[in-house]
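Researcher: Let's do a round of design. I'm pasting the structure tokens now; please hold your answer until I've finished.
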């Protein structure tokens, strides 16, 4: 049996995860599936990865824009601050989603 097949849930429990996009009315969206490898869950994994990559790019673009030598206008600073806030919000959502999926740790002998 391969690693992916052995990781599939065979005990009948559902997997719940916070999705990396908002649901209707801007509320958090959750996925309930029998497997962490459902097509929608795999799509969510790809979206999370892209959000993290986008945040890294935005940070690298913003870094020289906030140096004293850059002399940006207030509008330009507000624009880059807005992009940084959007990226940070997405990355925090990814972190929350992943933290919710970490299984509880059991001490030996419990």
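Researcher: That's everything. Go ahead.
Model: Designed sequence:
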């Amino acid at each position: 049996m391969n690693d992916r097949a052995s990781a599939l849930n065979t005990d009948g429990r559902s997997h719940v995860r916070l999705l990396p996009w908002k649901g209707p009315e801007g509320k958090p969206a959750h996925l309930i599936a029998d497997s962490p490898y459902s097509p929608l869950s795999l799509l969510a994994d790809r979206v999370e990865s892209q959000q993290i990559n986008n945040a890294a790019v935005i940070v690298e673009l913003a870094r020289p824009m906030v140096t004293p030598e850059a002399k940006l206008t207030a509008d330009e600073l507000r624009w880059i601050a807005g992009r940084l806030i959007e990226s940070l919000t997405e990355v925090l959502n990814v972190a929350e989603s992943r933290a919710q999926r970490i299984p509880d740790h059991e001490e030996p002998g419990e």
